Amino acid sequence: MSGNKQDEDPRINGIKTKIRVVPDFPKKGIMFQDITTVLLDPKAFKDTIDLFVERYRDKNISVVAGIEARGFIFGPPIALAIGAKFVPLRKPKKLPGETIFEEYELEYGNDRLEMHVGAVEAGDRALVVDDLIATGGTLCAAINLLERVGAEVVECACVIELPELKGRQRLKGKPLCMLVEYR
Amino acid sequence: MATKEEDVQDPRIPKIASSIRVIPDFPKPGIMFQDITTLLLDTEAFKDTIDIFVERYKGKGISVVAGVEARGFIFGPPIALAIGAKFVPMRKPKKLPGKVISEEYSLEYGTDKIEMHVGAVEPGERAIIIDDLIATGGTLAAAIRLLERVGVTIAECACVIELPVLKGREKLGETPLFILVTSDAA
Fold it and tell me: Three-state SS for B170?
């Protein structure tokens, strides 16, 4: 199976047709990729998870890291199916215990992604999951967090890629698996 | 941490309870925060948690699992997938991109809102509402009101943890509450 778009699989088109594009959200000019409509279709949602599970179940993945908040929807079902821990990567001040953080750039200003100390161990093999990759800034921050504690990031997995934003190039050489492109 | 009396027969509950970490003085002094992230690191405990909910709700005509942002997003989707229901995220304001309906609820100081997409659910559907924990019950009560406004029946609210001293159950009116673990810390 290629490390790119799963374009041979007949389930992909069913998922793609369920994604709703909302124009001008959160601001004018942005065509927002709304995955909540995929979640309303039990078959499309199941197919989405199954595609990722089939890819990762025999890869000895010990950690699925999900990026708040939509990564929390896709990450846990994958983690449960492949027998991996689920680790939430969160906005600042949400995680209650001791954390480490990684800063990343937004269009205007910076933000931070945090992870609990001790959640991930050196030698863990990790997946990073989010609903969508745009510029890749958040995913890059996630990769940095995991690598800092000695985990190996095997792949990033997203339902949707916006290839024109070239996020794939910001993943520190890590492969990206996505299901649907939006141009 | 105590286990609910009627669940003492389910041998999975004690392990789930012991996998939850209590963090003192978060988010502010005096609060003993119930941290479920350690449960998520225990693959057996996480699987057991989901299995208990799935066993309870499968085959009961539940077509909607509504999960409250953000920790309800962790427990809700696996349950929805296993019982063949839709998953509907209930979010803080301005996060959902489409047309929304909102419900306000009280905080200790001030108010907050919970939102849901218009059209996500249909009148006549049967729903369960999932969150990691029920404290005062304010958020869950708002979620119930939001779904009922669009004609959905809430079969039950389901949480991993209850803090009974905060009497959240009383805010849920007629809607039953199912929980796995109670904690006296509040």
Answer: helix
